[in-house]
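Researcher: Let's run the pair from yesterday's discussion. Sequence first, then tokens, for each.
Model: Starting with the first of the pair.
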Amino acid sequence: MMRLAVRIFFLLVLLLLALTAGAGYLFYKAWHSPGPLVADTTIVIDPGSHTVTIGQDLQQAGIVQDWRLFVLGVKLFSNGRPLRAGEYKFGAGMSPEQVMHMLVSGATYARRVTVPEGYTTAQALKLVAGAEGLVGDMP
């Protein structure tokens, strides 16, 4: 009877190891595979946003397939570094890993405005206020 119990125990341990290895493989494959995004997309991450909220926003924008996979990957691979706020432009087919690295590094999308030489402060402020995509209060 004892031998049967030991055999069952070892079979259960082997089954658990096989399931864990299979789940790890599926996670690895999903983490490194291209994401669902088919065209470049810009998204704003608000300051103080929690990782779960960011993951849900990324899924809603079509940047990542599953926000839970993204959050788990961030917890495992970001080495405790936070995701940074800002405006980000994500390229088509970016993997969840690439998205995480972009958010951890703070590689935000830079908008450029050229102010011609000789413009007054009022003219420069008007030019900035009319620039596409810029939001926020003007001085």
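Model: Moving on to the second of the pair.
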Amino acid sequence: MGQWLSCSSTRTPIPGISIGDRSIRTARLCDAPLRKGCSPKPHILQVGLRGQLYGPDDMDYAREHKIRVITSEELHEHGLRLVRSKLKAFQSRKTYLSLDIDVVDPAFAPGTGTPQVGGLSSAQILDLVRELKGLNLVGCDLVEVSPPYDSAEITSLLAANLLFEQLCLLALR
């Protein structure tokens, strides 16, 4: 599973946050293949993480389950070659891509409920999705687009292009 998103979404829920919180949902999404033994050694890569951590145990779940993480800062510093090196582990595996639009900097995609500065540019996220060419992509999604926050519709335009790129990847299999 590849997740391109701005926050890990695997941290222990913060007291007072409802069960519908994205953090809990994504942790369950990551947890399902781990619990069901879908693979002898599940591979999960999260790309584009940035923002605040709320405690020293926020990344415990990711560490415990050997979820690979590439932060936005690492991607900005090392470029796509860092992602390419991590994607090698996915070459022979069925891969699902979950793309959260908030991985993109709000300068390029303001229409999300969780904007976080320091993200990827629209060109970087397009290149990142194109890097998946050749993988055994079995499905994908794109989430967190919020039209009420998308005043100039640039987030929707980018999301439509990213979905087109994902469909092209599926067609190339």
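Researcher: Give me one sentence on the second I can quote.
Model: Confidence is low (pLDDT under 50) at residues 16-26.
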